[in-house]
Structures are given as structure tokens and as C-alpha cells.
Specification:
Elements (H helix, E strand, L loop, with lengths): L24 H51 L6 H14 L3 H5 L7 H18 L6 H10 L8 H6 L6 H15 L2 H12 L3 H10 L2
């Protein structure tokens, strides 16, 4: 039966309330972006960590290289020149075994270098005590003492406590020769023999 009434076809695509239009396009895009970000972020963090580790390693290598350079520079052996040896002797003459004070006399050497030098120096003095008597060394030592002793030879011998005076003279002149200083030579024998400085000096000057 014909009728003027007609039913318009449903446009599912334009109907916002349509059951088929469940997913909003913007929601779908946001979900997709988040998924991509989540997959990329762990890799990005890993790259940052690796980059930081590389930077740290570079810094560590630079510091190690610097330490190595400083160590080589410090341990590099440099011979003591005549001026430095004289400065060291001057320090010993004044302060003797007080190496901390002796260091101040040798500003061109480090504390470690002065300590090392002093150890070798005193070993050299110890070995010199075994040397034989050399008359010319006696004359040389006597000439280095430019003042009169505080006592005579007889008074000094009396204070030797029975020790062999010839042996004292021999040791003193050899220590003086090894040290390059009569003051150090006398001080060393004073230390090893247990005699007063003035006693050794008087024996050395008066010995013929």
C-alpha cells in the first residue's frame, strides 16, 4: 500500500550517541602516544645512564693520569748539587738529628727527599768510621777549627773514660772527610762514643 510516510535511513557515522561510535578518535590517539612514550622512556633513561658513566670514566682517567704524572715527578731522582749539600750540612750543624728543622735549610728539596738523603748520609758516616788513619786528613780537620779548644789535650784525655784517644782521632777525621764538615764529624763521634763535643775537639786539635 502506497503512503507518503517514509523512514529516513540511519546515519550511524554522524550519530554521536550511536552504539557503534564507542571509541573517540582523540582517546585512541592519546592511548597510542602514551604507549609509544612508555616504550621509548626506558631506552632513553638507559642512554642517559650510559652517557653519565662514560663521562665519569673520562674524569676518573684524567685524575689517574694526573696522579701518575705527579708521582713520577716526585719520585724522579735528581742528584743533589753542591749548594744543596752545603745547605743540608748547615742544617745538621745547627739542628743535628732534628730533620724537620734541617729541611728548612734546603728549600729546593721535599721533606721526603731530605729524609732519604739524611739516611744515606748517616750510613756513609757510619761506614767512614772503619777507615784507616790518614795524617793529611788530620791536618785538614785541624785547619777547619778556627778557634782555641775549651780545654787542653791533657784535660781532654783525662775525660775520655779510658777510651783509646788515637781511635777517637781516627774516627773523627774520617767522619769529617765523609761529611765535608768538621762540626758534623765531631758531632757524629760524640754520638757514637758518648763523649762531650769539647773533649773530642780538644783531642783533635792537640793531636800531633
Amino acid at each position: 500500500m502506497d503512503s507518503d510516510f517514509s523512514i529516513a535511513p540511519l546515519d550511524f557515522c554522524d550519530d554521536d550517541n550511536s552504539m557503534f561510535n564507542i571509541y573517540d578518535q582523540s582517546s585512541t590517539n592519546t592511548f597510542s602516544d602514551q604507549t609509544m612514550d612508555n616504550s621509548l622512556n626506558p631506552l632513553s633513561e638507559e642512554q642517559k645512564l650510559l652517557s653519565q658513566l662514560k663521562q665519569n670514566q673520562i674524569i676518573i682517567n684524567q685524575k689517574l693520569k694526573r696522579i701518575e704524572e705527579l708521582t713520577k715527578a716526585e719520585t724522579k731522582v735528581k742528584r743533589w748539587d753542591q749548594n744543596e749539600c752545603e745547605q743540608f750540612n748547615q742544617g745538621l750543624e745547627v739542628h743535628w738529628r732534628n730533620i724537620k728543622s734541617v729541611e728548612k735549610f734546603v728549600p729546593t728539596k721535599s721533606s721526603r727527599q731530605v729524609i732519604s738523603h739524611s739516611q744515606k748520609f748517616f750510613l756513609k758516616l757510619q761506614n767512614s768510621l772503619q777507615g784507616r788513619f790518614v795524617p793529611i786528613l788530620l791536618k785538614d780537620a785541624q785547619q777547619k777549627i778556627n778557634h782555641a779548644p775549651k780545654m787542653t789535650l791533657q784535660q781532654a784525655v783525662a775525660k775520655c773514660q779510658g777510651k783509646n784517644t788515637f781511635d777517637i782521632v781516627r774516627k773523627t777525621i774520617n767522619a769529617t772527610q765523609a761529611a765535608g764538615s768538621v762540626i758534623i764529624g765531631i758531632k757524629f763521634v760524640e754520638e757514637t762514643e758518648g763523649l762531650d763535643y769539647e773533649v773530642i775537639e780538644a783531642i783533635l786539635v792537640g793531636w800531633q
